[in-house]
């Protein structure tokens, strides 16, 4: 009698989980940087929320790329190409957040700080998938 069992590729699953945890931790540093810079530019300097978002997110993208290349995906080859891909993925986050600003801040009058903070988990999930499959593949 033979037993049939589904084969689970534990190393691949384990690697994905480790990468997700590292990506999330590094993303946390990027979120903190992004949010602090956004709040300073928008609330203190009085900059338009969409411009403040582009600047703060660009700083966070650069921070996250350097840390993810080193610690999460451990890839140091084709660094310029990978950064351009990572930045392109980051642009999806900027675009998504700016669309949410248009809908919620401009359209419904929701505070821009709340929209910015609320958009971050959605952007994180989208960008992890895109970066894992494209930027660091």
From TrEMBL:
- Compartments, as annotated in UniProt: Membrane
* Coarse class of the protein's main subcellular location: membrane
UniProt topology in membrane: Multi-pass membrane protein
- This protein is called what? GtrA family protein
Q: One Pfam family from the UniProt entry?
A: GtrA_DPMS_TM
Name the residues that span the membrane.
20-45, 51-71, 83-104
Domain GtrA/DPMS transmembrane intervals: 22-136
